Structures are given as structure tokens and as C-alpha cells.
Amino acid sequence: MIDYLSLEDAKHQPVWRRPTTLLFVMALAMPIAFFTWYALLNNFVQEVAAFDGADIGLLHTVREIPGFLSFLVIYLIIVVREQVLGLVSLMLLGAATAITAWYPQLTGIMILTFLSSVGFHYYETVNQSLQLQWLPKDRAPQMLGWLMAAGSAATFIVYFVIMILWEPLGLTYNTVFLAGGGITVAVALFALLAYPQYESPHPQIKKLVLRKRYWLYYALQFMSGARRQIFMVFAGFMMVEKFGFAVHEVAGLYLINLVLNMVIAPMLGRIVARFGERNALIFEYTGLVCVFLAYGGVYFFDWGFQVAAVLYVLDHMFFGLALALKTYFQKIGAPGDMAPTAAVAFTINHIAAVFLPVLLGLLWLVSPAAVFLLAAGMAFVSFVLATLIPRHPEAGSETVFALRRPRVAE
């Protein structure tokens, strides 16, 4: 029998059965499958399928199509509870990851990447909505920081196992994909059966919502998605193609990222709470402009892999401040808008992702440096947009241009 609990009643449950604990369980489960796939991807497609820059760009375009279609979550939650949809999506991500090595041809890799991406993006859409509904506003930045740290801890384990055991145990792609995906499926299934269904005090609007007063949030999401693609697709690919990193060396680089992220992520939450979303995002985008310009320098001036590795770590750290974008919307958004706006935001975030990877993959064949210089320009546009966030955002004061007004449902 399924238990239904309000968020208030859930406070009296044992700690392990509370909504916040479930958020942590999901935060631990998702990276095991996703980052197993991500850690092995560049080496797998080059060694097994002989991908070049154009192929990897096409693969990531296919991967981002479900992100562009995230708005369909709104129609799914009419018939499926958000909590259930999130956990089922996790299981799809895990299952597709588990069998990736079974289909080592271009078509098979594309299809499984698409399926795992459906699971990943629909999980992330629902997860963001649940975070904003279940976490209190006064503690949201700190809690989001701790959730990031938990995800980093899970990812750390994935990378550590791959880096330390890949060569000594003679691990294969099939073994690691199966293990990573299978664990995520098992954890998600446990969470689906063991936790009650939590009832938010604010029913979510189950239709697409586009409000004029959220325009700055939409613009920041669009630029974030476009800029992120260059990091996700080409930063790691550069380490393999230009510097010849092996699987365990790529995992080692990711491992450094994770160790730093586990330490820094809770601090990032406190930074956002202390200095505000405006200042946090301005700092993030300033740092990213510098990092992407330096990436270009790696090709222009033939800097060594040490410089590229340091830039990769800094890049990842700056992206951690993106939690400020979530709390910015939590402050300006109506309580019933969290689910529909999370879906719309994910779609907006992935508009550029549908065409950028394949186009930039072609540009990569001509000039890898130009790809990173374009990313620096995108980060600068984000910087300009961040300056339009007021120091104290709230409903009625969404941008520096907005006058406080009593009606905020536009």
C-alpha cells in the first residue's frame, strides 16, 4: 500500500524517510550511471567506433534532443506523480547505460545515448522541481550545496574505481557500464518502493507556463545551455584527442574535480546565501570568460596538458555556482510554477544544445581554438545578463528594471 504524506507530516518520519533524505538518495544514484558513461565515453567511441570531432558533435546533438523535449514532462505529470516519474527516469538512465557496450556501432551508440538521455533529462527536470518545492527558501542555497557535494561523492567513487582498478583488474567497457548502470537501477527501484509519496502544499500547474516576468531567468538558462555544451562535449574530448589521455588518466582528472567539488560545493551554497545570486553569477561568468579564453590559448600557443588540466578543474568549479540560478527562480517564482517552469527552463536550456554540438564539431575540424573563443563570448553575454539581477530578487522585483507591483502572475 502506498503512503501519502504532506511535507509537514513527513517532518515526523524517521530521518531516512523524509523528503530531504530522498533528494540525497537520488543525488547519489544519478551520478553513478551518468558519470560512468561520461568517464568512458570519449575513449570508448574513439577506440571502438573510431569517432572524430564531427561524430562526437553529432552524438551530443542526439543526446540533447530529450533535453529540448523536457517540456513534455508537464503532460506526463498529469498522469504520473513527479516523484514516481523522477525515479522511473533514473531507472531508464541506468538501464541504457548498463548495455552501452553491447552495441559498439555508431547507430547503437546513438540509440542508447538517446534513451539514457531521456532518463537523465526527465529526471533532472523533475528533480529540480522537487528541490524547489521541498526545500525551504531560507536554507535552499546551503542544502543545494550539500546535494551537489553528495553527487560529487558518488561521482568520486565512480572515477576512483575506474582510475585505480582499470589497469590492475583489466576492466572492460562492458563490465564497468553494466556495474554503473545496474547500481543506479537498483537504488532507484529501492527508493520507489521504500519511500512514501510526498504531497506538496502548493499543487503544481500542469500546463506549459511562460511568464513575461521570468524573461531574465529564461535568457540565463538559454546562455547556460549553449555555454555548457562546449565544456561537456569538447573539453574532455580535447584531453583525449590532443594530449592522448587514457581511460584511467581521464578518470584521474575527473577525480580531482570531484574531490575539490565535495569540499567546495557546500561553501558555494553559503557564498550564494551570503553574497546573493547576482554577485555569485557575475563571479561565475567572469571566471568562465577567462577559462575559455585560456582554452583557446592551449591551441594558439601550444600550452601543455598541465595547463589544460588546470583549466578543466577551474571550469568545473565555476560551473558549481550555477545553483544560484535555481535559488534566483525560487525567490521570484510563484509556488505553483516550480514544475512547469522547470520543464520550460530545461527546454530553453537545450535549444542551442540541439544544433550547437554538431555545428561546433564541424568547426572543431577546422579550428578547436575557435570553439573555445566562441564559448568565451557566450560567457560574456551571460555576465551582462547577470548584472540585470537585482540585489534582492523576489516576486515583483525580478530584474533591475522591474518595479515592485502587486500582480506578479504575468
In short:
The chain has 410 residues and is an all-alpha fold. It has one domain (4-386): Growth Hormone, Chain: A, CATH 1.20.1250.20. It is built from 15 helices and 2 strands.
Describe the structure.
With 410 residues, the protein is an all-alpha fold. The protein has a single domain, classed as Growth Hormone, Chain: A, CATH 1.20.1250. It has 15 helices and 2 strands. A two-stranded parallel ribbon has the order 1-2. Helix 14 runs antiparallel to helix 15. The chain is globular. The mean pLDDT is 81.
Write the layout of secondary structure elements.
Blueprint: E1 4-6, H1 7-10, H2 19-49, H3 53-68, H4 73-76, H5 82-98, H6 106-134, H7 140-165, H8 173-194, E2 197-199, H9 215-241, H10 247-300, H11 305-319, H12 323-332, H13 338-349, H14 351-366, H15 368-386
Parallel strand pairs: 1-2
How many domains make up the coordinates?
1
Radius of gyration from the alpha-carbon trace, in angstroms? 21 Å
Q: Low-confidence parts, pLDDT < 50 over ≥5 residues?
A: none
**Overall form:** globular
Structural class category: mainly alpha
Overall pLDDT: 81
Side by side, the strands of the main sheet go: 1-2
Keywords:
74% helix, Growth Hormone, Chain: A, globular, mainly alpha, 410 residues, two-stranded parallel sheet, 2 strands, single chain
